[in-house]
Amino acid sequence: MTTPRAYEAALTALLEGSGRASAEVTIVGTASVGTQRTTLFIEVADRAGPLRAVAQISLNIIPAAPASHQASLLGLAAEAGVPVPHVLAVTDALPGIDRPALMTTHVDGLTIPRQVLRSHTDHNTGDRLAAACGEALGRLHGIDPGTLPPDLDRLAACDPYLDYCDRLTLSLDELPTAHPAIRLGINWLQRNPPRPAAEQTLVHGDFRTGNIIVEHGRLAAVIDWELAHVGDPMEDPAYLCMRTWRFGNDSRHCGGFGSLRALREAYESRGGFWRDDAFHWWMTARTAWWAIGLAQQAAAFSIGETDSIVHAASGRRVPELEYDLLKLISDNKPAMKG
Amino acid sequence: MHDDPRPAALLEAMARTLTDEVVPSTDEAARHAARVVANLCRILAREFEQAPTAGDRGAMEALLDLRGGRADLATLLDERLRESEVAFDERALPVLLADVERRLAISRPSYLAEPS
Question: How many interchain CB pairs under 8 A, A with B?
């Protein structure tokens, strides 16, 4: 396990390499030791005075976009009017630790899902936040694909749905235990692709409660761009509405805080084109993806790749996602015939 | 055989201690870990109390037309689904849903009660 001292030294070295030679990094808190990344609250002291910042160090259990790509995307998103933190430094291999790291300005607000949902017990404020998410996604999907990093991960333009199913199958086949419920889900996905999007766009890929910063009910920032790629824009709103990201607040379909209608109307008001069949397909596909993701985390624990209790516990969460997956297929059963 | 209390009762007590005593007096990161451990204790307590029965595998055995343990049946069903037709998948769906519901009744029973 990396010590706080080692992180401080590595992050200071990173800032030196980014042109802040006299800056000193101090860890002031741990935001989360998550399943995908460690997030540290830090203070950067240099001649200009102390600056509150955040450092994210990837664990890369699930393949992710290089940190340098994330930094470019944050710049493009900011230009497009999507609220994001400002990038201070970035590396795909943190000195001495050899993990990707991204250092950004600190944005005040809530990220922990239970706190975000508690702050939106009122329907109106929850719908306002859902609308802000819809607007942010509309703007994000409006970014000119020609400006994106050319080697950013992208789904095959000729058949993105089959490509995604192939990726799911590959990950499923690598698991040490059989998951026939997920296999059945992938079969359904292969047989029922939606009509394609008019154009592939930038997709955030992890836009959900927990990865947005909410300040006084307002969307203050969209964070965690590790899964960004080029694909079908409907993947993002579908993912945000998955049951697992409602954190028990099931009646509020959008992230556990707002209505689907508020999300959709705002998305369309910012140029987004809503497709119901793609929404359902992606919700099903990303549910299968997260079922596999949780099983991967459990496997990483079982083979000794991680000693995180959160990873270990993930194995007992797989049935939740399998349940959602089978329910999504059952709800759309006529389409099972293709 | 083991001494009193039963494993499930001990696990329940461990969960309660974490939730009632440890969680209120720790910082946010440790609190999250304590909640995760408490939840795992409760899951294990239910696993001790609700051991799977042979009857639980009946539908999967009938679907595959053979007998075996749950893990073996799952592996065989997974193999079968790699090359399956729609008709087989339609028969497999309720069988798999029942299997998932049984596991969910142990890992997170409240998930079954909540609307989907």
Answer: 96
- Please answer whether residues A324 and A242 qualify as being in contact, where contact means their C-beta atoms are separated by less than 8 angstroms: yes
List of chain A residues whose C-beta atoms are within 8 Å of the C-beta of residue B71: 177-178
B100 contacts on A by Cβ (under 8 Å) = 181, 319, 322-323, 326
**CA-CA distance, A38 to A120, in Å (whole number)?**
27
State in Å, rounded, how far the first CA of chain A is from the last one.
Answer: 49
Q: Give the pLDDT confidence of A302-325 residue by residue, as tens digits.
A: 999 888 899 999 999 999 999 999
Instruction: Label residue B107 exposed, middle or buried (CB < 10 Å: 0-12, 13-18, 19+).
Output: buried
Integer Cα distance of A251 and A331 in angstroms:
17
Residues 71-90 on A with a CB inside 8 Å of B are none
> If you measure CA to CA, which chain A residue comes closest to B92?
A184
Q: What are phi and psi of A108, to 5 degrees?
A: -65, 145
The least confident of A63-67, A182-186, A249-253 is A63-67
Q: Which of B56, B80, B88, B89 to mutate against chain A (most A CBs within 10 Å)?
A: B89
Residue A127 scores a pLDDT above 50: yes
Question: pLDDT for A159-181, tens place per residue?
Answer: 999 999 999 999 999 999 999 99
pLDDT tens figures, A241-252: 999 999 999 999
pLDDT of residue A32 exceeding 70: no
Q: What is the pLDDT of residue A118?
A: 92
Phi, psi at residue A235, to the nearest 5°?
Answer: -60, -40
Q: What is the pLDDT of residues B24-37, one digit of tens each?
A: 999 877 888 899 99
Collapsing DSSP to helix, strand or coil, B100 comes out as helix
Nearest CA distance, A302 vs chain B (angstrom): 16
How many Cα atoms are found within 13 Å in the side-chain-facing hemisphere of A122?
7
- Which chain A residues have a beta carbon less than 8 Å from that of B104? 319-320, 323
CA–CA separation, B26 vs B21, rounded Å?
9
Task: State residue A47's pLDDT score.
Answer: 81
Q: Which residue has the higher pLDDT, A158 or A135?
A: A135
Mean pLDDT of chain B: 91
Helix, strand, or coil (residue A148): coil
A251 to B115: CB separation less than 8 angstroms, yes or no = yes
CA distance A291 to A325: 9
Q: Measured between alpha carbons, how far is residue B107 from residues A253, A269, B40, B63 in Å?
A: 23, 41, 8, 25
Q: Which of A243, A322, A323 to mutate to test the interface with B (most CBs of B within 10 A)?
A: A323
Q: What is the mean pLDDT of chain A?
A: 91
